[in-house]
């Protein structure tokens, strides 16, 4: 940002115009960023430790962290805004759904675990969580592959409420925290699929209107990629980029959500703006052929009758890591849906 700001500053000075970047602090930040870019990882780690900042992460992460620290300090001393945009609360969701070892093209994925983790921006920590299993109706018997992948047993889903009741319980949990009424919040997901495929498909199966809270969200992969200037990574690779280990069991929805929260909190502490960057477009049938021209950030629901998505290709079948894989034009790595 600082190099761009500096170029804009030179242009406006030549034209004799005033600018929000006309303060000399931006020139200073541009020079400082250049020096940080030349520093070794050892030198950056040493500086971060002296500043009592985290030294976890690869070299690019550490450079971003140090640059944003100085940016915040310099702008504050010059009484200039830092322009970091955060909401008071974030609700991280990561569904688990029914699946087979090899999914047929029209396989109806049903949500079997509905987890959520609540992050407070003010407290910079997880303050509560929600978790409920859901009893599937279309395919009530879980496959052996699904149970092994998710760790969810047949007994747990047999004893669970169906999705409509679980959704009501989740909305009551949101209301308990006054989210959406007194406090602003948004949903956070690891990719577009939790809302664009699982929530949308489950609402169709259950005959429910698509919930308002799920119509827009933060795809943390996009936020991470834009802030740290890297490719879009899976959750596992984002954690590795930050030099953090996955905590818990992969494909346990609640553990996945907690690890997404760890990534979100690191972004927050490093100075990232964390705002909505995706929303769902509930297309009419006749509009489906137009989805290839949709803008970035618009997710088209994926259902058996609607093969269109922001993904270029839907790969049927499963590896040991996931029940199906999407290769997206905006997510360069092959990553699991759950």
A few lines on this structure:
This protein is α/β, with parallel strands linked by helices. The protein has helices spanning 2-14, 24-37, 41-50, 59-77, 144-150, 154-158, 163-176, 193-206, 220-228, 235-241, 253-270; strands at residues 89-93, 96-97, 111-120, 125-133, 185-189, 216-219, 278-280, 298-299, 311-315, 325-328, 335-336. Residues 1-18 and 304-336 have low confidence and may be disordered.
Q: What is the helical fraction, as a range of percent?
A: 25-40%
Structural class: alpha/beta
Gyration radius, in Å? 22 Å
Distance between the first and last residues' Cα: 34 Å
Q: Give the overall form.
A: elongated
The pLDDT mean sits at 84
The topology string of helices and strands comes to HHHHEEEEHHHEHEHHHEEEEE
Largest β sheet strand count, sense and barrel closure: 8 strands, mixed
Strand content: 15-25%
- How many helical stretches? 11
Architecture overview:
This protein is α/β, with parallel strands linked by helices and 338 residues long. It is built from eleven helices and eleven strands. The chain has helices at 2-14, 24-37, 41-50, 59-77, 144-150, 154-158, 163-176, 193-206, 220-228, 235-241, 253-270; strands at residues 89-93, 96-97, 111-120, 125-133, 185-189, 216-219, 278-280, 298-299, 311-315, 325-328, 335-336. The strands form two sheets. Strands 1, 2, 3, 4, 5, 6, 7 and 8 form an eight-stranded mixed β-sheet that branches. A three-stranded antiparallel β-sheet has the order 9-10-11, with no helix packed on it. Helix 1 (2-14) runs antiparallel to helix 2, helix 2 (24-37) runs antiparallel to helix 4 and helix 3 packs across helix 4. Mean pLDDT is 84; it is low at 1-18 and 304-336.
